[in-house]
Protein: Malate synthase G
Organism: Sphingobium tyrosinilyticum
Amino acid sequence: MPDLIEKSGLKVAAELAGFIDEKVLPGTGIEADDFWRGVAGIFERFGPRNAALLAKRDAMQDQIDKWHEAHAGQAVDGTAYRAFLTEIGYLAPEPAPFAIGSTRVDDELARLAGPQLVVPILNARFLLNAANARWGSLYDALYGTDAIGSVPAGKGYDAARGAQVIGWAKEFLDRAVPLADGSWADWRGEAPVLRNASQLVGRAGDNFLLRNNGLHIELVIDAGHAVGRDDPAHLADVVLESALSTICDLEDSVAAVDAADKVAAYANWLGLMKGDLEDSFEKNGAMMTRRLNGDRSYVAPDGSSFTLPGRSLLFVRNVGHLMTTPAVRMSDGAEAPEGILDGIVTSLIALHDLRREGRFVNSRAGSIYIVKPKMHGPEEVAFTNDLFDAIEDLLGLERHQLKVGVMDEERRTSANLAACIHAVRDRIVFINTGFLDRTGDEIHTSMRAGPMVRKGEMKDAAWIKAYEDRNVQIGLACGLSGKAQIGKGMWAAPDRMADMLEQKIGHVMTGANTAWVPSPTAATLHATHYHAVDVFARQEERKAEPVAGLDALLTIPLAAGVNWSAEDIRDELDNNAQGILGYVVRWVDQGVGCSKVPDIHDIGLMEDRATLRISSQHIANWLLHGVCSADEVDAALKRMAAKVDAQNKGDPLYQPMRGREEESLAFQAARALVFEGVVQPNGYTEPLLHAFRARVKALA
């Protein structure tokens, strides 16, 4: 247990209290005694409500379990099922038509469309890379990935590859910012005459600044550059405005289990809000220091000067309602709800941005942006709205200056999305789908209905299309266009950029004005999709569509009448077990919450906790219904432990699992996630992961 000190009746870990008193509060205009008194009041007021909401989740799940048990062996009667969900309050009344009232929203969220990054807040270098990913080299993104073919071998410059990159980039310019006459391939470097003259918006020295669909393109002119000297226009690079926004994540992509972890996370957020975050590291034998980029200066065609943001607009994602933290104990001695602590501390830290005390400005509109994940239905969203009211009062903020992003990743939220949006209608700036968590909740909610289809078949299930369509349709019907982001999920394969270029334009065509990408490079490539499609025009088209119905959304993906072969079952267990172990071993043993984890086919995927939920719940479901046996699951876990060991053999910090299954806490955690999956609250992985990680840290 950490050293605790008393703060207005709370017991607060000394390192957290010291960090807030000495590092965060100075400069905010808030006295420490006033702050802690207000914090204690918030925990006293909202702690019991938080607990009651979690108890309601459990009670509702118990009712659903009993309903399925009472109808075992019967096909689900959709009408009766929907009536039952309405009776128990799972389905809430639909609000009358309304439009959100969010104001003071930055253009990156309301009036622009472009890529979004999600980055673990505990990794300073990743944070800086993501924040600086507002601008990216298209030449580098094309040359260094498989976007236009396999990456060339060797370290030297491949002239043929370079020519291919330049040709692709100039064809992109022909589509996005066409010349009045001819092709960019024939351009000789004079001031470009564009078909749409308004697309030429500025100069920076010899460089030209262009704009299409609200996004900027900078043509870098440098006759002395290795590429520019051989180009007829001395075009050395094409730099794209890329990641418009970034979510700095305290939740699914981090392993934060105690006060030390929370302070490290909060300290990085403070560094971003003050603009002084740095990270030094060794590269090619030399020490390098990474810092936040400054803004970019230009001269408009009329001779006036202007600047553009040099950094991505930053959200912070708090944890959800479920977990508690040992960093704070309430007056009754119980651990405090971690999500409430996150809301208070991350908002307090962001005051440094609002007071314009740092080197840079994050929100020019004067707002604080918080993503709130894993809320179940409108009552829980309303709780967050009330909590944010209280935090605003504590910090002396105006009402609705704290903005919220709602993750549409739980079944009860997606079924009641309009009501959820209505509950935060004056502060919402973001909704986003989350396929993996949404599928994990789909499985757990209907755990006792019967065995589910194979995991790979989930994307073809009836509920998925309704889910993805409803997210956009309801967002548009609630007036989010021009006021907030409607988002889509992650492209998980950072080494497969050709596939991303081919497929992820589908997210743009849905009318979503942002979608997640796994790296700054991917953000630059995905930005080309937003030049190809005018998203806000697409939203106008989609506004005419009827909202996809609830019946499809509530269709349970059961594998009725399927008789899998022993080989099918083994393959499915191996696939799930490998995914669980590959992620858990890094989380539990090393505290790594997000990394490129090889899948069973050795393809690197950016994984966070969401993938763990779907895989563990899927095996738990098959175990419950006798599709597989406990012995078969254990055999799969042992087989895949050997595979994961081999995949990580180059990591000097890695501790093998095979042959050490009884002593490996990582292996035991993976096993517990499966065999205790039915009883985990909503199928979440956090309680078990935190417990096993804490044991590892205690042993260290």
Observations:
- The first strand starts at residue 4 and ends at 7.
